[in-house]
User: Fold this.
Amino acid sequence: MKPPVLLTYNLHGERAAKIRMAAMRFRVRLRAVERREYARPLAELVENGPDGDWDGEAFDEEMLVMAHFPPALVQAFLQGLRRAGVRPGGLKAVLTPTNAQWDSLALYTELCREREAISQGAASVHGQTDEGKA
Assistant:
């Protein structure tokens, strides 16, 4: 089994420090993704160091991607964040076979669509096309 990795986007200040400490407690490697890497597939970001020269669209919202987290670790890590005083916020995802080949912007867009659907009380839009079909 591969060791767990937490991809982080737009983390700053005290919140970043608290998330970093929680990751250390759970022996999770933290990997800050830089804007220049947003076009790389998520699976590459997990496995490789910083690299890229992309200069396109970006987002400023915090996003966390948990890669190679067993289900029990996902729950324990999220509880650990709460206990460390990390207030809810930002977007969170688990790396899956489906999203592993997406780039950072594709994941961000999908998570925003999911959040919007949930806030409107709609069913999940995951895996649907723009026309709303699976």
Q: What stands out?
A: Residues 5-119 form one domain.
